[in-house]
Amino acid sequence: MTERKTLRTKTYVLLALMVIFGSSGDVLLSRGMKKLGGLDAWSFHGVLHFFINAFTNGSVWLGIAMLLLFFISYLLVLSWADFSYVSPASAVGYVLVAVMGYFFLGEYVPPVRWLGVALICVGVFLVGGTHPNTRQSG
Amino acid sequence: MSLRTALFIGIIVLTGQGGDIALSVAMKQTGEVKSFTPRNLARTIGRSFQIGWMWLGIGLMAVAFFSLLALLSWANVSLVVPATASSYIVGTMGAQFLLGEHVDKTRWIGVLIVCIGVAILCAA
Fold first, then answer.
1. Interval B71-103: pLDDT, tens
2. Phi/psi at B72 (nearest 5 deg)?
3. Closest residue on chain A to B43 (Cα)
4. Is the pLDDT of residue A138 over 50?
5. For the ranges A48-62, A65-79, A123-137, the one whose mean pLDDT is highest
6. Buried b (16+ CB within 10 A) or exposed e, B13-43
7. A72, A87, A125, B1: most buried by Cβ count inside 10 Å?
8. What is the rounded distance in angstroms from the CA atom of residue A60 to the CA atom of residue A30?
């Protein structure tokens, strides 16, 4: 029973880390790339200049670091949890991005999007109620 | 939707989920992480990269990523992203039939609802 509880707790913690690192990584990369602007010319020098600018941008590096931490968290949770559990449960990241956009960036979120957010929450709640490792639980 | 667009969506979903399933196999072979010290975590990650499934997974995910980039060069993101929400269904089927995970009715209903929710959220 305690082992079951420990498994559940560490799965929730790793999923939370995945969602936080993944969402913040996407936001930071997006912010960094928007600061750079579009790629003006598809010449060798144009592309080289674009990548040099991208890799000297703090937001881009921070975004890459966050996505790397996301990937490590993802690998670690997969070492014990079912893929069919981790994959849908991590969709809560979409909810986090929508809620953060609404509360912190003042973005308008249309009612249809809130419907999507509500459905994801219900789905994740249902998946979250099942055992994270069905091969262990039998 | 053109045949080319549908084909690319299929490639993205199959290679993306195939990649995730291969990563899952690699991590199950690596073994459950029980100690979370930095040394043990580094050792676990290092060990996982010595398993062929890990490299197959990364390769398939790279194919999915570059196919997505190619698809976005002609198709609208408002079509592409909601369509790839079907990945949740394909991934769960793969987990059930290839990995032998026991996906009960509750989990399947949850997966379907998440899939619809993501499609609506991304299409809006």
1. 888 887 777 878 888 999 999 999 999 999 999
2. -70, -15
3. A76
4. no
5. A65-79
6. bbbbbbbbbbbbbbbbebeebeeeeeeeeee
7. A87
8. 8
- Predicted model pTM: 0.87
Number of domains in chain B: 1
Residue A19 has pLDDT above 60, yes or no: yes
Grade residue A68 by pLDDT with cuts at 50, 70 and 90. Answer: very high
User: Is some CB atom of chain A closer than 8 A to the CB atom of B109?
Assistant: yes
Residues of A in contact with B92 (CB under 8 A): 84, 87-88
Domain ranges, ordered by start, for chain A: 2-137
What Å distances lie between residue A7 and A15, B63, B90, B112, CA to CA? 12, 33, 26, 25
| Chain B residues with CB-CB distance to A128 below 8 A | 110
Is pLDDT at A106 greater than 60 in this prediction? yes
In this structure, are residues A94 and B98 in contact, taking their beta carbons and an 8 Å threshold?
no
